[in-house]
Write a structure and sequence with these properties.
The chain has 2 domains: about 50 residues, Homeodomain-like (Arc Repressor Mutant, subunit A), CATH 1.10.10.60; about 150 residues, Orthogonal Bundle (Tetracycline Repressor, domain 2). Helices cover about 75% and strands about 0% of the residues. It contains 12 helices and no strands. The longest helix has 25 residues. It is globular and about 60 Å long. It starts with a helix and ends with a helix.
């Protein structure tokens, strides 16, 4: 019985997170409450408080999970034995972003609120996961483009991350935004995460390499 109870307790955070994500598929972040999550998960709010104090902490856990999954894809690039030029590397890195639409959406739309309304210990835990992922990205650059200096790799990352953070609304404008652009005579950018990422990553890499030649 004790073993069974322990398994239930261990599964609870994932059940809460998954319930939150089901709601996030149909409702914006601002309209989701702990009460909604509690009802969706079939878990009482006092039980949720044993794991998460706010809905923002739940989303922070989602981001941590997403960054960990992204890092595993970056590790594949790091361990890849085939020679990579800027085109191949850009295509591989762009593919990893195509698999992380949830990450792109949350950090673009709601990151500030999530971090501001999470306990310090939760935020520190997330930043450790985030930092480890960025270190793996830099290791990929170092392996496949050994001509890049440490400062050039950093400059690539500092150019890449803001692009990654702000990409989502360009690729996935809301219906309201589309209607407003149509009325205003503004043509929306018709692209995908992959296509846009390949272009930007290639440009950033080529600039970094030229500066080191």
């Amino acid at each position: 019985m004790a073993k069974s109870s322990r398994k239930i307790v261990e599964k609870r955070p994932d059940e809460i997170i998954n319930a939150c994500l089901r709601l996030y598929e149909t409702k914006p972040f601002q309209e989701i409450s702990l009460k909604d999550i509690s009802m969706e998960a079939g878990i009482s709010r006092p039980s949720i408080y044993s794991y998460f104090r706010t809905k923002e902490e739940i989303f922070l856990s989602v981001l941590g999970r997403e960054y960990s999954a992204w890092e595993q894809e970056l590790i594949y690039i790091l361990n890849c034995s085939i020679p990579m030029d800027t085109k191949i590397f850009s295509e591989h890195l762009a593919s990893t972003l195509s698999n992380r639409i949830l990450l792109l959406r949350i950090q673009c739309m709601n990151l500030y609120e999530i971090e501001e309304h999470s306990r310090d210990e939760c935020l520190v835990g997330f930043k450790r996961i985030y930092g480890k992922t960025i270190e793996t990205l830099e290791a990929c650059l170092q392996k496949h483009f050994p001509m890049l200096s440490s400062s050039s790799r950093k400059e690539f990352i500092y150019g890449f991350l803001p692009f990654m953070y702000g990409m989502y609304p360009y690729v996935y404008p809301t219906e309201k935004q589309k209607n407003a652009m149509e009325i205003a005579g503004v043509k929306p950018l018709e692209t995908s995460v992959y296509e846009l990422s390949v272009k930007v990553i290639t440009a950033l890499l080529e600039t970094a390499i030229k500066e080191c030649i």
